[in-house]
Amino acid sequence: MRIVVAAVGRLKSGPEQDLVARYAQRIQKSGKPIGITALDTIEIPESRASTAEQRKDEEAQTLLSKLNDKTHIFAFDERGKNGSSPEFARQIETVLDAGIGEIAFVIGGPDGLAQSLRDQANQIVSFGKLTMPHQLVRVLVLEQIYRATTILTNHPYHRE
After folding, report:
1. In the β-sheet with 123-125, what is the strand arrangement from edge to edge?
2. d(C-alpha 23, C-alpha 148), whole Å
3. What pTM value is reported for the model?
4. Can you name the residues that pair with 125 across neighbouring β-strands?
5. Do residues 7 and 107 lie in contact, with contact meaning Cβ atoms separated by under 8 Å?
């Protein structure tokens, strides 16, 4: 199983990049027992189109063009389901058990995600109604993937 974190915008040097690198390294170790073989990042530039809808549409097309047709897509959007970490882990486990070769965790840009991308997503996940910079969302996504791997391997990182 390959995991892809696909995001609009580039993660610049700094504490967010350090946290992303730390969680990526942890995922690669903790994910092996449950069949996670690779963790890759796809970054696309923010669109420069004149309207928010055009920007979102352009970004969605570019993001989707980078993914395999059979990729299971978790899209992060404020209108998504705000579930618990164990629920998120079980969703990932279901995809792993189904033998799907790739999971993508998609993070939009400043304008959010286009409806077309949300429509193609298998699951839409929310960290709540707060607006957050994509750099912080990327850290949160990677931390939750790591947390999911520890839940699925019965590691004591997650506590109820």
Report:
1. 38-44, 2-8, 102-107, 72-81, 123-125
2. 12
3. 0.95
4. 81
5. yes
Instruction: Render pLDDT for 16-39 as a digit per residue (tens, 0 to 9).
Output: 999 999 999 999 999 999 999 999
Q: Please write down the HEC assignment for all residues of 56-117.
A: HHHHHHHHHHCCCCCCEEEEEEEEEECCCHHHHHHHHHHHHHCCCCEEEEEECECCECCHHH
What is the domain partition of the chain in residue ranges?
A: 2-152
User: Which tokens in the block code for residue 58?
Assistant: 């352009």
Contact present, 107 and 137 (Cβ < 8 Å): yes
CA distance 83 to 28: 24
CATH number of this structure's domain 2-152 = 3.40.1280.10
Amino acid making up residue 71: T
The confidence band for 160, taking pLDDT boundaries of 50, 70 and 90, is confident
Phi-psi region of 55 (alpha: psi -120 to 50; beta: other; left: phi over 0): alpha
